[in-house]
Design brief:
Layout (H helix, E strand, L loop, with lengths): L1 H9 L6 E6 L3 H9 L6 E5 L6
Parallel strand pairs: 1-2
Amino acid sequence: MNHLRHLIESGTFRPVVDRYYPLDRIVEAYRYVETGQKIGNVVIEVAPVHG
């Protein structure tokens, strides 16, 4: 875990995010994943992101 933390903090680890979906659109997100067209992770936001 310390190694992962170091990679994240240093900016070395950069996850590939394809799309973000709010929780109320989870069915749409699932359908998108099932198409096989995604090129990264699909993130489900369970709470609004502020900042």
